[in-house]
Known about the structure:
- The structure holds 2 protein chains of 2 kinds.
- By secondary structure, chain A is mainly alpha-helical.
- Helix content of chain A is 73%, strand content 0%.
- Mean pLDDT of chain A is 71; it is low at 82-112, 138-154 and 176-183.
- Chain B is 69% helix and 0% strand.
- The two termini of chain B are 37 Å apart.
- Chain B is built from 9 helices and no strands.
- The chains are: A mainly alpha, B mainly alpha.
Amino acid sequence: MHKVPENRSPYCGDPGALVSYLYNDGKPEELAAIAAHVQECEPCTRELAALGDTREQLTAWAPPNAELGFSLPHEAAVAEAPTALSQLSSQTPDTSIHTANPMANTVWWRQAAPVWMQAVAATLVFGAGLAVGVTGRGGAPTPPATTVASSEAAPVTRDELAALEQRLRELAGRAPAPVAPVQTAQTRDGARDEELLKRMSALIGDSEERQRSELALRTAQVLRDFEIQRKVDLATMQQAVGQIQGATGAELRQTRELYNRLMDNVSQREGVR
Amino acid sequence: MNWTDEELVARSRSGDLESFNQLILRWERPIYALAYRVIGQEEDARDVAQETFLRAFRALPGFKGEAKFSSWIYRIALNLCRDWIRRKRRTPVSQLPEDVDLDDLVAERGPTESVEDLVARRELSAVVEEAMAILPEEQRTAVILKEYHGMTFQEIAELQGVPLSTVKTRLYQGLSVLRKHLQERSPPLPMRAGAMRARGH
């Protein structure tokens, strides 16, 4: 704190007064009194100049130029409105906002559906498809939506699907069906089965034939590869044996030459004696 | 038609969504700036600003107009900022840009500002942001509301729920800390030639 002049004003060095004067925020008569003091008090003038300089520097701080463009879509407003009306009959705004994480309350229309909801949707679609397929073949009307919807969010197992199919078949069997069309259908089915069997047999025969040919080809290929490899190995071995024979012959020749030289030396010495 | 805030609020309360969207358009930038300066995180500031308007919309039926709409929405934003700070249990962390693109700088500068001045201003901005981050929350908020949002002491006192004298003390203390920090750290800046801003005295 600065040195206080003798005729001290009540405003001298008072942070409240300095700040009021600095921001020009206060009652006019009070501001006038502070101004009169500042004009006479050099330390207060210096303090105010320094604070003013600081304020000048603060103007340099600008937030990033973010893209904002917030707006409430109509459907969001419709969804939000009942909540707002029910919540705020007697609340003040700041009590109502003190609750939570702003991010946790991210608007609901932006959030993805939970996994269980997606699973239920998938089950419904699958079940409906299955039921349509079964009833389409059996010709009897069934209530697929009711049956599948009763399974709720629980995952559908293979057994449950089998049970469902069985039940649909039973329902189909119970339904009154005209005789003649069924017979016709059975006859048609038998003919279709025979044709299918024939086609299957032909396919299996073709497949076996193809496999036999492939096996023969593979065997021939393996034999050919084996023969080639055998020839290569044989040639390599012959080459190696030849090298060994060559080396051995050279050694023998050297030994023989050495022996002959020694014999010559011996006979020369005997001749001298 | 240029409606006042109060008129737009009245229309919004009677179900005119477009009027509320006009209020958003009018106040989104100041609210975002407030959130950014208080919490110091760009993305979170966006979220806080967005949440502010959503909460305001929800609370609109309970807004009786005793206070100005701006004070009311500032209060919502400040409460959300306070929640954010409490949740993070930390003072704001400055996000200072590392890479400065010269083209961006040139596009950003004012008509009479040289690139050198602009670079100096950005450096000073970073130093100010850093200095602000060291202030206690209540001082920082008081300085921000006064300096950047032009609120009166009385409005700040109401927003912060403290006496007028406390607001003045917080401002004085905050400015003193900032002054010290800026004296130590700030780069020379040509535009600082003028000492005090002329504010009618």
